[in-house]
Write a structure and sequence with these properties.
The complex is a heterodimer of chains A (291) and B (301). Chain A contains 16 helices and no strands. Chain A has 291 residues and is mainly alpha-helical. Chain A has one domain: MetI-like (MetI-like fold, Orthogonal Bundle). In chain A, helix 10 packs across helix 11. Chain A is globular and about 75 Å long. Chain B has a two-stranded antiparallel ribbon. In chain B, helix 10 packs antiparallel against helix 11. Chain B has 2 domains: 48 residues; 227 residues, MetI-like (MetI-like fold, Orthogonal Bundle). Chain B is 74% helix and 2% strand. The two termini of chain B are 36 Å apart. Chain B has 301 residues and is mainly α. The longest helix of chain B has 40 residues. The chains are: A mainly alpha (291), B mainly alpha (301).
Chain lengths: 291, 301
């Protein structure tokens, strides 16, 4: 393609009054571009730099400005119950995502292939629930979940996360399953698999990319969330890491180097997931617009 | 073939269709239950409780007086005003990512690495980004170091400490947190643009700016709309973490937005009824934006 297009470009260049200046200008332009990109990169990496540099100071060094110390890392578990908090986050994330998938996959299959009367209307209602922010229904939600006695363990938070994540997963799976040929499902039924069998053995294995998208998006969302964990997990000994950090930060008494060390640890899993599955994230974000 | 086989399996076919519909309903049921139970029912309850005096345990019907009281409460207007002022950050939250996406689209050496770097903060919790932002704006923070390094040692800021500047600091942080997501959206949009179009325009002698205005921007319009909706929704419903960590809604009520006011009214003041009412107002506000988004998605199907 480029070889086809270069000749006219060259003649144009030859006709220009200063033939040599144009490529030079272009090269200069590229350099400016590169410098700007490095500058943007510095800005975007700033949070990581702050976290790393600050965590490598003792509290006294942080207040005075200079110095280097492993102290806040060594005493981290004494300041923040980091192990327990990471464990809590992991439990809450896995359980919520599991429910979102177990509920979303059959629903997506139903709304795309096993349509029943009113299924379109029901689908639209579920999808529009995507737009309801938790804060809008926070008070009744909190009272309901508390009355059900679910704020004692992880169950309340897990169910709220699952409910909030379900509309998107239903939307994504429904759109995805629309591409599955009807003949495949009929063949499965004829072979006596039954609808459950058809779903788990034929349809779900085809949906691995969609499952990955939902998992990655929800993992980052839930791992990074504060509000649900803050209100729906009452035991401080079961707090997820994000909640633990936020509460300590809002208290304004914890040493900042320790908080930064904790922040780095909390950021790590989401970053790894993100770097590993970047394309699924992009796919999920542009779902419904880019097809 | 159809002549022979049609009459016989007709009965079976009907039941088969029935069975399929029943299976579909049962398959969808858990999702319906979860969404209705945890999202639908609370909306109804919020409407009911907005007419009551409610402390979370007992509620007393007091009719529309909660509403008149709420609208006479200056905190509500402050919060709405703060939300409205924060909307001023939206052009930046869209414009900067648009520029960054355009930069990345030039495919300079190492652009993939740059892309990953630019997206990286997207993975971090807004709690953590709020913590970092607090360090940035603090009295002994990075911002003042930069100002001093520029030789303006007489100027010292403490943006989060004053009512006049705290909201701006929050807005700047919000723009930063949105850069990754929106850049990602725009870059995806640019990737779907046919490169020969731009090439052809360049051959025809169009300047870079002309190409950007007449080809790239119109192509991106759908992506810009989507990014706009997502940014506004985030502005109304995702600032909680930032506010909680950076300012706690203060100083005074300077950084209290609607969502934070709901939390404060409910959990700090124990006035669940008014908080439920505020929730409804937020619901309507995001609902308006949501309808726009649904129409956007719908128009593509």
């Amino acid at each position: 393609m480029t070889t086809l297009l270069t000749p006219p470009n060259d003649t144009e260049r030859a006709e220009a009054p200063a033939p040599l200046s144009r490529p030079a200008k272009r090269k200069f332009g590229r350099w400016v571009l590169f410098v700007v990109m490095v500058a943007v990169a510095v800005v975007m990496l700033y949070p990581f730099w702050v976290m790393i540099v600050t965590s490598l100071k003792s509290e006294a060094q942080f207040l005075s400005g200079g110095g280097f110390s492993w102290l806040s890392w060594k005493s981290l578990s004494a300041t923040i119950p980091i192990g327990q908090e990471v464990l809590s986050s992991t439990i809450v994330c896995s359980a919520s995502i599991l429910i979102i998938l177990l509920v979303g996959l059959p629903a997506g299959f139903a709304f795309s292939k096993l349509r029943f009367r009113t299924s379109t209307a029901v689908f639209l209602v579920i999808v529009s629930a995507m737009m309801v922010p938790l804060q809008a229904i926070l008070m009744p939600e909190f009272v309901n979940v508390t009355r059900l006695g679910l704020t004692g363990g992880y169950a309340g938070a897990v169910l709220v996360y699952a409910a909030l994540g379900t509309p998107f997963s239903v939307f994504l799976f429904t759109t995805y399953f629309r591409g599955v040929p009807d003949e495949l499902i009929e063949a499965g039924i004829v072979d006596g698999l039954g609808y459950v069998g058809v779903m788990w053995r034929l349809v779900v294995p085809m949906a691995v990319p969609a499952i990955a998208t939902v998992t990655v998006l929800q993992f980052i969302q839930i791992w990074d969330d504060l509000l649900v964990g803050l209100l729906f997990i009452q035991n401080t000994s079961e707090r997820p890491i994000t909640v633990g950090l936020a509460v300590l930060a809002a208290g304004r008494t914890t040493s900042i180097p320790a908080l930064m060390a904790g922040s780095l640890i909390s950021a790590l899993p989401a970053m790894l997931v993100y770097l590993g599955f970047q394309r699924y994230l992009v796919k999920g974000l542009t779902m419904g617009i880019d097809r | 073939m159809s002549l022979i086989s049609a009459p016989v399996p007709r009965v079976r076919r009907m039941t088969l269709r029935r069975r399929r519909q029943l299976a579909g309903f049962l398959f969808a049921l858990p999702a319906i239950a979860l969404v209705v139970g945890f999202i639908g029912v609370p909306i109804g309850q919020a409407v009911y409780y907005s007419f009551t005096q409610w402390n979370g345990l007992t509620s007393k019907w007091i009719g529309t007086s909660t509403w008149t009281q709420a609208f006479h409460n200056s905190n509500l207007w402050t919060a709405l005003q703060n939300n409205a002022l924060l909307l001023l950050a939206v052009p930046f939250a869209l414009g900067l990512p648009l520029c960054i996406a355009a930069l990345l689209h030039q495919r300079v050496a190492g652009w993939r690495i740059f892309r990953s770097i630019y997206f990286l903060p997207t993975a971090i919790s807004w709690v953590v980004l709020g913590l970092v932002a607090e360090r940035f704006f603090a009295y002994q923070g990075t911002l003042n170091s930069i100002i001093h390094a520029l030789g303006l040692s007489s100027v010292t800021t403490n943006m989060l400490g004053y009512e006049s500047t705290a909201l701006s600091a929050l807005g700047i942080t919000f723009v930063f947190t949105m850069i990754g997501t929106n850049t990602m959206l725009f870059l995806t949009g640019l990737a779907t643009l046919d490169p020969t179009l731009e090439e052809a325009a360049r051959i025809d002698g169009a300047s870079r700016w002309q190409i950007f205005r007449s080809i790239t921007l119109p192509h991106l319009s759908r992506f810009i709309q989507l990014a706009f909706v997502m940014t506004v929704i985030a502005l109304f419903s995702a600032l909680f973490s930032l506010i909680f960590v950076m300012t706690g809604g203060g100083p005074g009520y300077a950084t209290t937005t609607m969502e934070f006011l709901i939390y404060q009214t409910g959990f700090n003041q124990g006035d669940f009824g008014t908080a439920a009412l505020y929730g409804l107002i937020l619901f309507v506000l995001t609902g308006i934006v949501g309808v726009v988004q649904l129409r956007l998605i719908g128009s593509n199907e």
